[in-house]
Design brief:
Length: about 240
């Protein structure tokens, strides 16, 4: 089972929209996804109870979203071969390390503050992965391994990817990397830069998204579907 976690510590970064677009595309290419939204207190799930959704949905409140609860929710959907989780930062790390098939995607809008936060979250993931190599960490986590029959975990640099969202179409990969470098001390120090998914999510009009991200009924325009399929194909290549 493949798992894609959309993570972002800043509200409005496009995490939820990106997760629904990705699930839409994965369904369109036949991968039978489950979309699981972890919501903050008092926030209603955007799509878990909508009608006409072409993929399975579920939601958990953040305070109840333990790794065990997430695994139980996934197990309740045996029809799904892929999982997309819209997850706030505080609940991410145990899930990432307990389920070795997980890949973390950090939505990154082009504004400077958005790039800065996404890069910081990406480096934070690497720091936690470094902690995972500590013997005391491994001893603590050993009893909590998932019940899935999974393959060898992917390399640490492949665990996290920046996902450009709403960047100008005429901005090439080098320009995106250069903007990321401005906010990445590791790159300025000569270390490898963050992995960036070359095909991100282009700017989609609010008119299309209001129909897609709807708590009552899901409606997907041809524009959104074309984008979703392209993104899903790029992201599915990250599976192990």
């Amino acid at each position: 089972m493949s798992m894609f976690i959309l993570q972002g510590s800043k509200g409005g970064a496009g995490r939820t929209v990106s997760s629904v677009v990705l699930a839409t595309g994965l369904a369109a290419i036949g991968l039978r996804p489950l979309h699981l939204q972890v919501t903050m207190s008092g926030i209603q799930p955007v799509i878990a109870f909508a009608k006409g959704v072409p993929f399975s949905t579920a939601a958990l409140a953040e305070h109840a979203a333990t790794t065990e609860a997430i695994r139980h929710t996934i197990a309740a959907h045996p029809e799904c071969s892929t999982v997309v989780i819209d997850m706030v930062k505080r609940t991410i790390w145990d899930t990432v390390f307990d389920i070795p098939t997980s890949v973390v995607l950090f939505p990154m809008r082009p504004a400077a503050v958005e790039v800065e936060v996404a890069v910081r979250d990406y480096r934070d993931l690497q720091t936690h992965q470094g902690s995972a190599s500590d013997p005391h960490f491994r001893l603590h986590r050993r009893a909590a391994r998932p019940p899935y029959n999974v393959r060898r975990p992917i390399a640490s640099l492949d665990r996290g990817w920046l996902l450009p969202v709403a960047w100008p179409e005429d901005m090439d990969d080098h320009a995106v990397a250069a903007k990321v470098e401005r906010f990445d001390g590791s790159m300025r120090a000569g270390l490898p830069g963050p992995s960036i998914l070359k095909r991100g999510i282009p700017d989609i009009s609010r008119e299309h998204l209001d129909d897609l991200i709807n708590t009552s009924r899901y409606v997907c325009s041809r524009t959104v579907e074309a984008t979703a399929v392209a993104v899903a194909r790029s992201v599915s290549e990250l599976r192990i």
